[in-house]
Amino acid sequence: MFKKYSLSLVFILGIFICMLDTTVMNVALPQISKTIHTDLDTLSWALNAYTIIFASFTIPLTRVAEFFNKKYFFFFGALLFGIGSLVSGFSTTFVILLFGRILQSFGAAILFPLSMSMGIELIPGKNRTNVIAILGVTQGLASAMGPTFGGVITEYLNWHWIFFINVPLALLIILLGALTLNDDDIIQEDLQSIDFLGSLLGIIMLSSFTSVLIEGRTWGWSSITTLAVIGLSIVSFIIFMITESKSRNPIVPLSLFKDRNFSGASLVIILSNLFLVAVTVLLPNYFVNVENLSTLNASYMITPITFSIFIASPFAGFLLKKVGTRWLIFSGFMFMAIGYIFYADFNALKSVLFSCISGAFVGIGYGLITGPITVIAASDFKGAQLSNAQSVVSVLRQVGISMSVAIFVSGLYVNLSSAEKNTIKYSDNAILAMNLPSNITQKIQEQTTRSIASQNLNSKSTPNLPANSMISTQISENKKKIEKYAKNAYTFAFSNLYQKAVPFIFLGTTTILFFSRRKKY
Questions:
Q1: Band of the pLDDT at 105, cuts 50, 70, 90?
Q2: Residues of the chain with pLDDT > 90: what percent?
Q3: Separation CA 337–CA 334 (nearest Å)
Q4: Which of 39, 237, 287, 390 could disulfide-link to 117, CB 3.0 to 4.6 Å?
């Protein structure tokens, strides 16, 4: 009994720390930027490098672990993640922080998929489905907890501790693993060779694809750099598919996707993580920069999502057996759609109560999906195919996160730019309507425009008009009008994104057509 629970804890912790660090840095970026004197655009690479490397190297490093020794590679992944966390925590410059994050990401690329595949292999019998569901729920829960966890740690300690906290957890994984993992229990696949060409092509394909998703907005979607990286991704994908179809020991067996349930699960994993991250990443930004909440309070606004995932997930395992896959996935996307409909309402988004209700719906929807879909993705496979399936699923989860950043953050920048232009236009007209002397009007317009334009696109608040003792009352009244207009404009910049996303969430319900009506889990 002790061994079963210890093993479960080892693999749960392995998944937890890897997924937590995909989002834990988000709310701490402004604090980190001030401490290490680096602008946010440069600093974002410490965040993006983790996702890119995690996605690109998961499959090749999993295959290397299968070829040599999964147990010791598992320990090595935990150790590498812990060392990377320590380096990141002690960092005083961007270069050191980036190096630490790179170490973390390579550790995660080993630790995460092995936690999934070994966790499923080593918990046999009737408990297997429950363990798979718990491991799946841990992934979504950790990712959703990231912003809240990062906000609380940054507020009460400092940003260094969002990395330091990983070190004892990594040591606990190694210690418990050493006590409970036996070589005889681990299924070591008899692989004759490693598909080096497929591995190289896979790394090029995934790194270029995730890079363009994350950095396409910065580079410019029609720039030569973006188009070249897209071209590299497409060409490497085509060659990769040809190589894998002819390889004796492919790094990604294409036969996995002949299984309808696995193909459907893969699509659902991408979409569900895309829609979850679109909320957990963007909303703290809104509450800090538009509603002027503290970083800590903004982080708390995400808590209903995490809490709802935690509450809904246990019911999902029960419902999977009772109502089946199709109804459960359909219900999950419908709940997420309802949450997005609330977020899409201009006035509801500004209400703390309705924002919490919206987050609860999104969390319930994701909770109904994440555990069962992990069970479905693993249910038809054993041995090497199971490891391959979990590696692919791990990558697809990161792809969903990257796509969310590409689509929603890019859309937000466009909306914020439009809000800025409209606010400047409105303020100019409001100032002209005061019928002040031309020299005063021009001065106020210039200062107001600078006040709006100088704001960072991620930190839009209301403009500050200059005071003037002669016309203070008139200016004060117009200032309030402009502040109200600006707040509404920037609120709409966020709500409009969720409004446009609603039809695509409803479209996500069509993924149920992939799944068998009668299959039991």
A1: very high
A2: 16
A3: 5
A4: 390
- Closest by Cα among 330, 284, 337, 331 to 306: 284
CA 96 to chain centroid, in Å, comes to 23
Which phi and psi (to 5°) does residue 265 adopt?
A: -60, -40
Tell me how far the alpha carbon of residue 346 is from its chain's centroid: 25
DSSP secondary structure, 391-421, as one string? HHHHHHHHHHHHHHIIIIIHHHHHHHHHHHH
Amino acid making up residue 247:
S
Task: Measure CA 124 to chain center.
Answer: 31
DSSP string spanning 193-241?
A: ---HHHHHHHHHHHHHHHHHHHHHHHH-TTSHHHHHHHHHHHHHHHHHH
Alpha-helix runs per DSSP H in 293-437: 295-300, 303-344, 346-349, 352-378, 383-404, 410-432
Do the beta carbons of residue 108 and residue 55 sit within 8 Å?
no
Decide: 88 and 43 in contact? Cβ < 8 Å: no
Closest Cα partner for 120 from 36, 214, 186, 68? 186
pLDDT the model gives residue 461? 41
How far is CA 306 from each of CA 302, 321, 336, 364, 412, rounded to the nearest angstrom? 7, 24, 13, 9, 23
Structure token digits, residue 192: 């004759």
